[in-house]
Description:
- This protein has helices at residues 10-19, 25-28, 52-57, 64-75, 101-118, 127-134, 141-144, 162-167, 172-200, 206-213; strands at 43-47, 83-87, 122-126, 149-151, 154-159.
- The relative contact order is 0.14.
- Strand 4 (149-151) and strand 5 form a beta hairpin.
- The protein is globular.
- The protein is an alpha/beta fold.
- The chain has one domain (10-213): Uracil-DNA glycosylase-like domain (Uracil-DNA Glycosylase, subunit E).
- Iron/sulfur cluster (SF4) binds at residues 17, 20-23, 25-26, 32, 89-91, 103, 106-107.
Amino acid sequence: xxxxxxxxxxxxxxxxxxxxxxxxxxxxxxxxxxxxxxxxxxxxxxxxxxxxxxxxxxxxxxxxxxxxxxxxxxxxxxxxxxxxxxxxxxxxxxxxxxxxxxxxxxxxxxxxxxxxxxxxxxxxxxxxxxxxxxxxxxxxxxxxxxxxxxxxxxxxxxxxxxxxxxxxxxxxxxxxxxxxxxxxxxxxxxxxxxxxxxxxxxxxxxxxxxxxxx
Length: 214
Ligand code: SF4
């Protein structure tokens, strides 16, 4: 981890990203894109890197892929305020090329700290680069998409990147299925939470039972 990188909140992290020059992308970007969403978000979404629109506006997923992401979230009863969205790289690689290992390594403290500060219940990994960054050594996105993976106490669901589905229409069906898998997981967690709450309720005392029934 780069020395001196420690953050008490998402705001201070965001300020640091806007001033960051830890890799060459800090000199070629228009705007850095730290991420958006609440520190209390239950779901964190991690993509690859800002594209042209994101680089111009300083927000993640604002182009066509962002619109598709919004539709998919809406389809499972969620919207942007329910999630925290970011990327493994906070600055745009020129020409939207793949992230370089050196850039991914330089930028990783930001993502690690975002994860620590938010402590989401589930992290959606959008595409192969996010999968390789957070679950290194695991299988390919084509094999793992839609599956729930727990590692070191953190729950991940790899899914296809919406941009990939826009370029390859045959991925649109699997992407929709992936979001159904996300919904099923969230529903299971909700059921578990309710069951735990009911189990934690104190049993009624005998005199309360008499009052209830007598
Ligand atoms: S990509 Fe990450 S490490 Fe590189 S300059 Fe931007 S914020 Fe810093």
